[in-house]
Amino acid sequence: MLDKKQALLSTLRRIVLSRWAIHTGLALLGVLQITFLNVVHFDLSIFLLLLIGYGYNACFYFYLKRDKKHYSDRQLYIVSVMQILIDQIMYTALIYMTGGVESYAFLFYFITIATAILLFKALEIIMFSLTASMLYIVMIFLEYERIIPHFWRFSLDPGFYLNPALTIQNSMIVVALIIIVSLFAAFIGHLMRLREDEIVEESDKVSVTLNNITDGVIALDSANKVILINDVASVKIFGIKPGLIDNKLINAELFRPCFNPISEFIMASIEKKKNTSQEITINDDINHYIYSVHCHILHDRAKKINGYIILIRDITADKELEIMKSDFISTAAHQLRTPLSSIKWMMKMLLDGDVGKLSTEQNDLLKKGFQRSNEVISMMNNLLGITEIDRDKLPFKIEPTYIDKVLEKLYDHYVENAKQKGITLILEKPKGELPLIRVDLQKINMCVQNLLDNAVKYTAKGGKVILGAYTKDKNIIIKVADSGIGITDEEGVKLFTRFYRGKRAINEEPTGSGLGLYIVKSIILKHGGEVWFESEKDKGTTFYIKLPIKD
Length: 551
Fold this sequence. Notes:
It contains 15 helices and twelve strands. It is an alpha+beta fold. The strands form three sheets. The chain has a five-stranded antiparallel sheet with strand order 2-1-5-4-3, with helices on both faces. Strands 7-9-10-12-11 form a five-stranded mixed sheet. The model has no long low-confidence stretch (mean pLDDT 84).
């Protein structure tokens, strides 16, 4: 919510600073007039008046230096009124000392009216204009009645301050100007208040919205200062009072030491000047938390960086749920795989004729059952694979490997199967031998095998599948291309997520777990590589695996 007290305090402090400039300007003006215009009555009395102005401004300055918690709303209101009234008295004395009714110093009243616009509503602005008018009229009256002496503005006194008609006419013009200006100021002030109320209303809506978001939100300006932090981030995550770090430079000292990984991530993201995200584990004295932290850059229309938004989500419960789910899947897969392997083994014995000759019909049924049991066992293996990936416990045995040799073996294994489906499998051999690369041979073999399985599975009779590899920019690129059903843009967005299968893929081949490509991507990323695809609907797909050639 917008802090009105802090806003008023800041305005009062700015008024005090502007008063230093005005009084200093008046003093310099006096010196110039004495030096160049020979204004003999701009004497020490006026400088003494300015010195008084410096004095009361210094009192306001030191009084307003304290934190907002030291002031009540009533105290700040009284200070606001006193600033206007004392200024008006000060400027009335200045008018008197610079010619009274003949002086143009009444224009300084407009400064107090302008100040009132910043602090008060329309009616109060008009009241201050009436106060200024009364002070001016009283000063003119006292001067006319010679209760106070007259200070003439020039060396040759025109003397019209003693002329009733001229004095009344001049006073009426000045008062009329003050009132007209104040009415206009009141109108402008009213418009400003309406706009301010709209801004406050919108700010309150934003604050309420942000404080009802379950994620922590921190907004930084281009100077990396905190301009907004919602209650979830300040209270629930960091355990600090709302508003405590507002307008402070983001750094590790703002938070408890246990949150250093988050502040370091934020500062590193700002230094990189790009959108980043990371899962960060925090351990305090009692609890263990896992946060997903995202840093997003904000650009203006000129594409310049004008701030940052940091989103912090507590994913501890999600991670615990994932562990429980992985434990369940792992246990279920292990429990199912053992009897399925036994069933597969018994089917194999029957197919091999170990228990007697089978009829053609019996043999066909057993072959289908044997194939389905292989598919289910493969699915169990995939489920066990993703549980190890999720726990970051997938073992890797890194060894020097020639990728072209791996592809040749896979080609020999798949060429006959592809031919039976009426598909041509082509091995594109690289020009020269590919360099030695350090990878987990078994897992890279599994990744390419998965891509080949899909290519053969989703390519119609008469189509072709191409398997090849080449080097590019200190990387080995493995390519698996087919002329199959292709992948739509909508399917491509979710293709590497777990358990996802496109509708057309399901229609083409109902069986499948939707885990293969997720496992492929996870394994390749662990090798420091990348996997991507290029596709056109009904014309085919090409998958690429990039593996770095490390020295």
